[in-house]
Specification:
It is a single chain. With 411 residues, this protein is of the alpha/beta class. 42% of the residues lie in helices and 23% in strands. Strand 9, helix 7 and strand 10 form a beta-alpha-beta unit. The longest helix is centred in the C-terminal third of the chain and has 44 residues.
Length: 411
């Protein structure tokens, strides 16, 4: 139940400590999992002291147990080992210190660790953290590479030497961290996040040499996996050797078999790139030369054609054709004109032959009355009626002088 205190009526430290101890005493025993970071076995002492730490968080708690409890697992448990402890929380009032009194210690076996990792793997995969579509491509030529590795480690040396041998101008931002043990996870997570916040870092490489399953457990920690999944910068996992497969390999944008392999995949080889440039340049030069040679051959072939060697020949050939057509046209036109002229002369002759003037030329005459009517019968002419006679040479007047129908010229 809550206490009622005030600045005028405070509780003494001893009473507060005893109250805390009373509350803790009412707690039951619990099973706790962690990693042993400190182990103290004093000769002749009946109590063993150890510190149990959460590998994923910077939290630890003191554990005490009787020697016979620890002796039962002393052959398989040492500093760095993962254990499950059945203990009851205790409060040491004089120092205000919380500890666990262990009644049983069980080492976490490899099989159990692998089973837990498999369960964690399935859980994270269900969230989509390992999905292929989340993978980001690496830059072709990173200007600044963030490297997270152990201090003075073989992994650091391999990455730096191989990368600088392949591309001497490459730069690195190195973060040395613990790569195994209880401090590995928080330090690696902090280093990765720090490099990810740097805008000029193009890619992050997390490298470590090979080791046992226990040594590589920090790189399968859920906190580290989620930190890498949240990175904006592409991350390359280079943990252990080819058979090693921590969960970091699955969430990283690229998995390298070894740190050396990571350097080869992240940094291009300047000699290979120069050779590729030379090859492409030679290929382009061959293509251009081939194109020019092909066009030159086509031009030579075109110039070798008769029409190009004697361009006036076509005009000459066409001129002869034009002359022939003109001559043919003139002949045809001449024939047409001659035939038309002949037809015209024939028609003219017929017209002339049928003309009244031609009849008059043969000695005939035409008699017309005063009103101009042509006399066709003597019965229509009265005696002594004046008529007009028209002959080929002209016209003159005449009159009828007898009843017999004779017509004489008028004097």
């Amino acid at each position: 139940m809550a206490l009622t205190t005030s600045a005028e009526a405070p509780l003494p430290v001893g009473q507060v400590s005893r109250l805390i101890g009373g509350w803790i005493d009412r707690l039951g025993a619990v099973w706790v999992e962690g990693q042993i970071t400190q182990l103290s076995r004093r000769p002749g002492a009946g109590v063993v002291f150890l510190t149990l730490r959460d590998p994923s968080h910077d939290i630890s708690v003191s554990v005490t147990c009787y020697r016979q409890v620890f002796d039962a697992v002393a052959d398989v448990v040492s500093e760095g080992a993962r254990v499950v402890v059945h203990a009851k929380p205790e409060w040491y009032a004089p120092r205000g210190q919380l500890s666990l009194r262990a009644a049983e210690i069980r080492p976490v076996g490899i099989g159990e660790l692998l089973a837990r990792l498999e369960q964690l793997k399935r859980s994270l995969a269900a969230e989509g953290l390992f999905a292929v579509e989340r993978k980001r491509p690496l830059p072709f030529l990173p200007q600044l590479i963030g490297l997270v590795c152990g201090r003075a480690s073989a992994a650091e040396r391999d990455v730096l030497e191989v990368a600088r041998r392949r591309w001497p101008a490459v730069r690195f931002e190195v973060r040395n961290v613990a790569v195994q043990g209880v401090h590995a996870v928080p330090q690696v997570v902090r280093a990765v996040r720090e490099l990810d916040r740097m805008d000029d870092v193009d890619v992050i490489v997390v490298a470590r040499g090979g080791g046992s399953v226990e040594d590589l457990l920090p790189f399968s920690d859920e906190q580290l996996v989620r930190a890498v999944a949240e990175c904006r910068t592409p991350v390359v996992s280079a943990i252990g050797h080819e058979p090693d497969a921590p969960l970091l390999d699955l969430v990283a944008d690229l998995r390298a078999a070894t740190p050396t392999d990571a350097a080869k995949k992240v940094v291009p080889d300047v000699r290979e790139e120069l050779e590729r440039v030379r090859s492409l340049r030679d290929r382009a030069l061959r293509c251009v030369r081939g194109l020019l040679e092909r066009e030159e051959r086509g031009l030579a072939h075109a110039l070798a054609r008769p029409v190009m060697e004697h361009p006036q020949r076509m005009v000459e050939e066409r001129q002869a054709q034009v002359d022939a057509l003109v001559a043919r046209g003139r002949r045809v036109l001449g024939h047409l004109l001659d035939r038309a002229d002949s037809e015209l002369a024939h028609t003219h002759a017929r017209v002339v032959a049928l003309s009244p003037a031609a009849t008059l030329e043969r000695g005939y005459a035409v008699l017309q009355r005063a009103d101009g009517a042509v006399v066709r019968s003597p019965d229509v002419v009265a005696e002594d009626e004046e008529l007009r006679a028209r002959v080929a040479g002209g016209a003159f007047a005449v009159r009828r002088v007898d009843g017999g129908g004779a017509v004489v010229p008028r004097p």
